Amino acid sequence: MNPYKYEFPDPETAHDGLLCYGGDLSCDMLLSAYYQGIFPWYSKKDPIMWWSPDPRFVLFPEEFHIPSRLERFLRRNESLSEKEKFVFTMDAAFRSVITACSAVDRPGQDGTWILPEMIDAYCAFHEAGYAHSFETWQNGNLVGGFYGVQLGSMFFGESMFSLVPEASKCAFVNFMKVFRSCGGRLLDSQVYTDHIARFGGRNISRSAFLRLESNYLYDCLDQDMASFFSEQ
């Protein structure tokens, strides 16, 4: 699969983050977009819109920290019964995770941007080996998680959901520990969220993001994350 099969306009020319619209959600186009620092985001009645925001909200693994209350919660989790404790997996239920993310009510948003065609497209991207999900289970039930795209030593976070308190946060913490230990260099959260800010996320300029991306996309992780999860 050619990551530069489709050439987008220069991301630095995006106005208020919106770069262009049109195209499709094929694996080739998604891969080309991510390699150029661009991602799709649009509503039901809109054409496919492609974005490159400035500033870009990111989290460097070396700046990642766990809020003290959540750290205490995670320590307690280890001593819970098998029915109560959280169990974490990778790529065990991708379609279920992205579908659950599409159903989350988000303040200030009318409906969801994770439309049925977006779900199908990212499921195909997952089958191609680029999109991944991270799940939290409790007593055999999927109770939280998130999904995104991993390229080189970068991870592009897309969306998360929780059905019980702390489920998505715990999945994220577990992911970041694995990502950091496997040599991950940068998490892209696209735009500011209070949630990621609590873990150390911060804004950098679009220019700085594109420079970092041009290096990290061609790095390899020191260890495959999936093998790390299988060892847990």
What does this protein structure show overall?
This protein has 232 residues and is α+β, with helices and mostly antiparallel strands. The chain has 8 helices and 10 strands. The model has no long low-confidence stretch (mean pLDDT 93). It is globular and about 55 Å long. It has helices spanning 27-35, 68-77, 94-102, 116-127, 167-181, 194-197, 206-216, 225-230; strands spanning 18-21, 39-40, 49-51, 56-59, 86-90, 131-138, 141-151, 154-162, 186-190, 202-204. Helix 3 packs antiparallel against helix 4 (116-127). The relative contact order is 0.17. Helices cover 33% and strands 23% of the residues. The protein has a 7-stranded mixed sheet, sandwiched between helices. Strands 1-3-2 form a 3-stranded antiparallel sheet, with helices on one face.
For the largest beta-sheet, the strand count, sense and barrel status come to: 7 strands, mixed
Count the DSSP helices: 8
Distance between the termini: 32 Å
| Helical percentage | 25-40%
- Beta content comes to 15-25%
Poorly predicted segments: none
- The global form is globular
Helical/strand content category: alpha+beta
Order of helices and strands: EHEEEHEHHEEEHEHEHH
Radius of gyration: 17 Å
Q: How many strands in all?
A: 10
Helices, strands, pairings?
Elements: E1 18-21, H1 27-35, E2 39-40, E3 49-51, E4 56-59, H2 68-77, E5 86-90, H3 94-102, H4 116-127, E6 131-138, E7 141-151, E8 154-162, H5 167-181, E9 186-190, H6 194-197, E10 202-204, H7 206-216, H8 225-230
Parallel strand pairs: 8-9
Antiparallel strand pairs: 1-3, 2-3, 4-9, 4-10, 5-6, 6-7, 7-8
Helix pairs in contact: 3-4
